[in-house]
Fold Ribosome-recycling factor, mitochondrial.
Amino acid sequence: MFASRTVLLSLGQNAQCLSLRNRIAEVLQRAMAPKRPLASLANSQFLLKRPATPNCSPIRCYAKGKDKKKEKGKTKVTVNENQLAEVINVGSLRSLMEKALLQMEDDFVKHLSLRSTTGAIESVPVNLDGNEHTMQELAQIVRKNPKTIVMNFATFPQAIPAALKALSKSGMNLNPQQDGTTLFIPVPKVTKEHREQLAKNAKQLFVKCKDSVRDVQLKFIKQLKKQDRISEDLARSVEQQIIAIADQFIANAEATLNKKQAELLGEK
């Protein structure tokens, strides 16, 4: 600072040095001036103004939703009877599956009646001494009146315990009363609980039928895989057709089940 003042004094007052002297004085004045705070600098007219940001509404980006899962429907298989006949016994296949379906329908008639009948009780299986018998083989069964069924075991009195056990497992909601060698069975009232129990029994009979059909399916597929004279493509095609036939029988059985359950539950 003292050196700068010395320079100014040495220049003197001549006109030639006046302009240089003024410039040096201006530079010194600016250097000695206090610095302005940043807040004031922000409002300085010498600062360049940043262009205003246009008023644009923000764009919201949504993640794309996952596509809805397509229903995994089974591929429809066309059954070629002629092709099947060259490899398996189609008649036997259908006959065994049909037998399982008919058995279920027969069980529906015998065991799923809203009103207990002598016919339903006659067909109840009884396990006696390791052998299976029907109830009518062991007792004389008659309907005494609309509300009572009588079973006379005078010929096979030793079968009464097994008969009682079979009746309790029949699912017909029976409550037999024993008097010597005779059983008196009150015909149960048709209650909501009784209807629901019969509907459950129908489902159990359907599952039994379904399992029987699948057993037949598995049996013929095993026979198919033991054949070496057919090509791999033909074996795969025949296997799919066997499964398709089994699926059709099971679908028919399920339709019969739905109809029976609607009847038992009193649905239209």
The first strand starts at residue 125 and ends at 128. Residues 39 and 47 are 12 Å apart (CA to CA). Confidence is low (pLDDT under 50) at residues 38-49, 66-71. The beta strands are 125-128, 131-134, 140-145, 148-152, 177-179, 182-186.
